[in-house]
């Protein structure tokens, strides 16, 4: 795909409209469905309890099978279409709350109480049904649509595009997960906006001095040069600002005033990773995976990984600081939730929403949109060409 920008027009960035409706619709989202999406935290899915989630506009019921593996089915009973997520899980199967039809993790009906006493409390195999004289076997009643799942790094992923062998990328690895020097925790936030606008917000530096003023970055009248590299389905922004600082927790992470190295990285289709490093021994990585619920609603799974430069036993310091880091990140995320709601209100205010104007500071957003549009249109061919450019903006 041709780059929408050429070198001469870098100062003024315009891109075609973003179609948030199509992006969040399983039947219209093209290749956007051919990726693993986070369905829930592993801890949100205990054994024996169902969980309702909506991914790409599709209602799912999640539960764990008898081996503890996550399963995902369409959240609609074959019988009279009641929502299965309102039912119960027992022995790794889900029972409908309306008439008790029971399904296994493959989506097969294994028990229909109205078929008779032999159906109560026990699933019969083919011979068992023959012996019981049943005309209809539960498995004759059809199968619920099931979706492939995967549990990794504390997250449960679901694949909405059919056979997960077709996945365009492996499920994303949480930064520093399982590394002893690092502490990792998750936050789950419902955001009132679509995936494109959210990943752009998480990669956006100019907003920090407005939305997070005093919390994260203060307006500094500073010129920020950066390199924007679009390649292999990712957009990497490397800031070349001397003496960049973040307010708030920055002082705890950087007591000796080392230079901060800041990179923002987007990965198709829905992932960002923001890194702040101070030397080798101290850093903060924020990884956000955005799961589309609908056109302007998403669940964001944020993995916060941090490492502190102090020599005290790591677990002690990390544990002592955890409430503070959690509280701080919650405040910052709340500010983003509020501004994403404000953006949605403008976006949905009559026709024309989703057409964005921009300057050099928005080049990375144009690159993200180019990738997402290519996937929305089916993701054929090579996709947006690799490119690396320098930009300058002010904060
Ligand atoms: S609607 Fe599910 S068992 Fe009847
Ligand atoms: Fe923000």
Structure commentary:
The protein has 395 residues and is α+β, with helices and mostly antiparallel strands. It folds into two domains: 36-148, Rieske Iron-sulfur Protein (3-layer Sandwich); 169-394, Naphthalene 1,2-dioxygenase Alpha Subunit, Chain A, domain 1. The chain is 19% helix and 31% strand. The protein has seven helices and 20 strands. Strand 10 and strand 11 form a beta hairpin. The longest helix is centred in the last third of the chain and has 34 residues, at 314-347. The chain is globular. The structure holds FE2/S2 (inorganic) cluster (FES) and fe (ii) ion. The site of FE2/S2 (inorganic) cluster has 9 residues, from loops. InterPro entries: Cholesterol_7-desaturase (IPR050584), Rieske_2Fe-2S (IPR017941), Rieske_2Fe-2S_sf (IPR036922), VanA_C_cat (IPR044043). It holds the Pfam family VanA_C. One of its GO terms (molecular function) is 2 iron, 2 sulfur cluster binding. Keywords: 2Fe-2S, Dioxygenase, Iron, Iron-sulfur, Metal-binding, Oxidoreductase.
Q: Kindly report how far apart the N and C termini lie.
A: 32 Å
**What is the CA-atom radius of gyration, in angstroms?**
24 Å
Our count of domains comes out at: 2
Strand order of the largest sheet: 12-18-17-16-15-14-13-20
Tell me roughly what share of residues is in helical segments.
10-25%
Q: Describe the sheet with the most strands.
A: 8 strands, antiparallel
CATH evolutionary superfamily of the largest domain? Naphthalene 1,2-dioxygenase Alpha Subunit, Chain A, domain 1
Classify the secondary structure makeup into a structural class.
Answer: alpha+beta
- Small molecules in complex: FE2/S2 (inorganic) cluster, fe (ii) ion
The SSE order reads EHEEEEEEEEHEEEHHEEHEEEEHEHE
* Gross geometry: globular
CATH class of the largest domain: Alpha Beta
CATH architecture of the largest domain: Alpha-Beta Complex
What are the segments in which pLDDT stays under 50 over at least 5 consecutive residues?
1-8
CATH topology group of the largest domain: Naphthalene 1,2-dioxygenase Alpha Subunit, Chain A, domain 1
